[in-house]
Design a protein that fits this description.
The protein is mainly alpha-helical. It contains 9 helices and 3 strands; from the N terminus they run H-E-E-H-E-H-H-H-H-H-H-H. Helices cover 55% and strands 7% of the residues.
Length: 191
């Protein structure tokens, strides 16, 4: 995912909401909390989009808590078995867990940002072989061929893939199909 102003994935990741605790009273902004109150009082906790949180946090008007998709519970599950966690269920709107994590890293200090970076990297590295393996498996199936009944774990993994992983899955699948087609039309494939 690129950090481009016009990139759809970037826009969706920045639209995720995080919980902010205001340090000061903010007049006439109670609508951000979904209520009818006119003001946001100091120490009020409000869910706001990440793109709005940048200004509030950097100007020291609010603090934020680590969002649930990156909580200790999720990190423990990822440390135990990264392939069993449904990343797409952790964040909505296309399941851009890695992109949302990169955006959260920008708000953190050095040590927490490095820890989150380590979690994202370790998770990606652990899940990538499964993504590629499944993409190659599905590329090798004949059109119209079904999957076996014992494929429930693989199906659950595919359903839980992050948007970036789905993109890599499609690229790897297309690459495997092209490689197979090339091999079948080459001299070796005809023997």
């Amino acid at each position: 995912m690129e950090d481009d102003y016009y990139n759809v994935e970037s826009i969706l990741a920045e639209n995720q909401k995080i919980q902010c605790t205001f340090k000061i009273d903010v007049p006439d902004m109670g609508h951000l909390d979904g209520g009818k109150a006119g003001d946001i009082k100091a120490l009020s906790k409000v869910q706001i989009p990440l793109w709005m949180a940048y200004i509030l946090i950097y100007s020291d008007h609010a603090d934020f808590t680590i969002p649930p998709p990156f909580s200790a519970r999720v990190r423990n599950a990822l440390n135990a078995e990264p392939r069993s966690v449904r990343l797409s269920a952790l964040v909505g709107q296309g399941g851009l867990w890695y992109g949302f994590g990169r955006m959260i890293m920008r708000l953190l200090n050095d040590v927490p940002a490095e820890e989150l970076s380590g979690v994202l990297t370790k998770t990606f590295r652990a899940r990538l072989p499964e993504v590629i393996d499944q993409a190659q498996h599905f590329a090798s199936l004949q059109p119209g061929a079904g999957t076996s009944r014992g494929d429930a774990g693989a199906a659950a993994f595919r359903e839980g893939m992050d948007g970036s992983e789905r993109e890599l899955f499609q690229l790897a699948q297309e690459s495997a199909k092209r490689t197979k087609a090339w091999y079948e039309t080459s001299e070796r494939g005809r023997r």
